[in-house]
Design brief:
Family: Belongs to the major facilitator superfamily. EmrB family.
Structural class: mainly alpha
Domain Major facilitator superfamily (MFS) profile: 15-488
Strand content: under 5%
Distance between the termini: 27 Å
Number of helices: 18
CATH topology of the largest domain: Growth Hormone, Chain: A
InterPro entries: EmrB-like, MFS, MFS_dom, MFS_trans_sf
Transmembrane segments: 12-33, 53-74, 81-105, 111-131, 138-157, 169-189, 201-220, 232-248, 268-292, 304-322, 329-349, 465-483
Number of strands: 0
Radius of gyration: 24 Å
CATH superfamily of the largest domain: MFS general substrate transporter like domains
Pfam families: MFS_1
Order of helices and strands: HHHHHHHHHHHHHHHHHH
Length: 508
């Protein structure tokens, strides 16, 4: 059995504030990097399928480590976990800032991810045990506002830094802030933890790492090596088998590393599925849009960042409003409206042209972010609200793990679709262009024609990938109709019911 968690009568606002600053820095670093991907591709001479590892590798490490956070949160104090997480994040940031080859940059990102993996579940768990169910929506809304401020300023700040400095400045900019946050945590966090007799199951951690890591690696490699590669389908098969053994082992243990029994609560199970589907659509959109704007349209990094600014600001403003609406109306109506908007805007993103106006892109991206703001936080909070307090660490760890896995799968899947469809369109457009030639072209004309064909082919590949996100959003929309307002399970009644069943069986 998990260690019961004592409810806090007065929310620890100091601890929450420090944790939010740490989470904000981690989120800011991610949003800074999205705009920089095309510049990194050019500077380090890597392809889109390779540079996506900066996002996918980050999520890969998160997917491996986050399952262990349920154990860590129960075992160690908030102070110890926060300081360890920020230390790792700071070291990774410094390393990435001095990277001159892609592997070093990737290692720095993965060390950052090791710290980030602890921060978000830790903050979510503190929020859950600090606020009663009826006030959780508003609290999560404020939490969302703080975190969404990073995507609001990140792209614009990133664009300005890249335009005036090297992309490495993105990491140099974050480093001193991360050090200050680490020092603040060291001097201000004073919480203590009662000694708990709980040990980490090393074999479960190994199975979890092979399972989630294998699945993530398989999907991530598919974009570059193709689905027919033994390395791709081999790691996927190994990952699925290891994950199946891991789940079976957890269900048999009295104190599992990650408690899969929480899926007996229907609203939590439903919220997990919807969040996974939405995350697939969201992460892919955040990756495809900068590639279209900068690579195809030639829009500067600063203007690309400014294009994304109104949508991110709108999302940040909506977070506390959505939180209050959730407390009043529940998650179902918000999810239905938000997913409908997301699906429609994703469809219009699949109709981009070489001449789509800057204003059109701003409006479309802003409306899409508005829709997204009404989905993730309400759906996730509604699912967590049904869980007993003692399994909150498992609920937050499970949600964070699945979001990382689905984000990586979504990114890898849609980059694969974009790459494969770009190749297909390039072949078709190349044949059509050659067919219309009346005479043998000069090398200069041939080079220009090839460049135009590749631009058009990449555009069509991006449009095809966005069209797939329409289907992904449609699946989430259908599932959202089954959402009901969750009520926290009364464990006293649960125990009594179980005792009666045992007594009845004993009597027979």
């Amino acid at each position: 059995m998990e260690q019961p968690i004592k409810k806090i009568t007065q929310p620890p606002y100091g601890i929450i504030a420090v944790l939010m600053i740490g989470a904000f820095i981690a989120m800011l670093n991610n949003t800074l990097l999205n705009i920089a991907l095309p510049s990194i591709m050019k500077d380090l001479k890597v392809e889109a399928s390779t540079v996506q590892w900066l996002a996918t590798g980050f999520m890969l490490v998160n997917g491996i480590l986050i399952p262990a956070t349920a154990f860590l949160i129960q075992k160690y104090s908030v102070r110890r976990l926060f300081l360890a997480a920020m230390m790792l994040f700071t070291i990774g940031t410094i390393l990435a800032g001095f990277a001159h080859v892609f592997p070093v940059l990737l290692v720095g990102r993965m060390i950052q991810a090791a710290g980030s993996a602890i921060l978000m579940p830790l903050l979510m768990n503190v929020m859950l045990v600090s606020f009663p169910v009826e006030k959780r929506g508003a609290a999560m809304g404020v939490f969302g506002l703080v975190l969404m401020f990073a995507p609001a300023v990140g792209p614009t700040l990133s664009g300005w830094l890249i335009e005036n400095y090297d992309w490495r400045m993105l990491f140099h900019f974050v480093t001193p802030i991360a050090i200050v946050v680490l020092l603040i945590g060291f001097f201000l966090l004073k919480d203590k933890k009662e000694k708990i007799d709980i040990r980490l199951d090393i074999f479960s951690l190994l199975l979890s790492s092979i399972g989630f890591g294998g699945i993530l690696y398989g999907f991530s490699s598919a974009g570059k090596k193709g689905w027919e590669s033994p390395e791709v389908y081999g790691t996927l098969i190994i990952g699925v088998i290891a994950l199946a053994v891991f789940i079976i082992r957890q269900l048999k243990q009295e104190r599992p590393m990650l408690n899969f029994r929480i899926y007996k609560y229907p609203m939590f199970a439903l919220s997990s599925v919807i969040s996974m589907v939405v995350t697939m659509a969201m992460f892919s959109g955040m990756l495809l849009t900068p590639i279209y704007v900068q690579t195809i349209r030639g829009i500067s990094p600063l203007d690309a960042g400014l294009m994304m600014l109104p949508g991110a600001v709108l999302m940040a403003i909506m977070m506390p409003i959505t939180g209050k609406l959730f407390d009043k109306f529940g998650g179902r109506v918000l999810a239905i409206i938000g997913l409908t908007i997301t699906m429609v805007t994703s469809y219009y993103f699949s109709k981009l042209t070489l001449h789509s106006t800057y204003t059109h892109l701003i409006i479309l991206y802003s409306v899409r972010m508005f829709g997204m703001s009404m989905v993730n936080m309400p759906v996730t909070t509604n699912g967590l609200n049904q869980l007993p307090a003692r399994v909150y660490p498992h609920g937050t760890a499970m949600n964070s793990t699945l979001q990382q896995v689905s984000g990586a799968i979504g990114t890898a899947l849609l980059v694969t679709i974009m790459s494969n469809r770009t190749t297909t369109h390039a072949t078709e457009l190349g044949k059509a262009a050659m067919h219309h030639l009346t005479k043998q072209p000069t090398p200069a004309v041939l080079a220009e024609m090839k460049q135009q064909v590749m631009m058009k082919a990449m555009l069509e590949g991006i449009n095809d990938a966005f069209l797939v996100t329409v289907g992904i959003a449609a699946v989430a929309l259908i599932l959202s109709f089954f959402i009901k307002r969750a009520k926290q399970i009364d464990e006293t009644n649960e125990v009594k019911t179980t005792a009666k069943k045992i007594a009845k069986l004993a009597g027979n």
